[in-house]
Amino acid sequence: MKQRALFLDRDGVVNVDSGYTHRQDQFEFIPGIFELVTEAMRREYKTFIVTNQAGIGRGYYTEEDFWTLMNWVTQKFAEAGGPIERVYFCPHHPEHGDGKYRQECACRKPAPGMLLQAARDYEIDFGESVFLGDKKTDMDAGRAAGVATLLYMGDESNYQPAIKVASPLDAIAYLRLPGR
User: Fold this and answer.
1) What residue numbers bound the domain in which 81 lies?
2) Which of 2, 67, 177, 179 lies at a 20 to 30 A Cα distance from 126?
3) pTM of the shown model
């Protein structure tokens, strides 16, 4: 049976985007994010974080630094009652990456590669899934993958076809729609 998914961008959705966040002391959770993920679990969504991490490619921090932080983040979600099923990340950048990280790839949003990999790994039904992002690249990736509900927390007020929400708490309403 195919699974419903809640896809979350990281910087700007899960945490305040302070630029190349890679340590616990830099990480500030966005209010309402734990409640959103807990509600998603109650409604039988699997929750995934899908995040571009060009800071790795640029040499600002390592993949080990990234995973140390993300293990702590996922532990905090589990403690709050809403587990993160898996974290997908792209360390590449087509222009600014160092060495093996400087490349065009299918995983860097706006490409849908991370979402498509999640669908292969977990049999995701995009037609019953939700993506919450704060940038146009998030919405483009969700649309390219066929995610049915795109929720946008960014500054551009009329990005189509996304639904504008002010916070993760506002996004909870879209998990509670009839048929979800």
Assistant:
1) 17-135+145-175
2) 67
3) 0.95
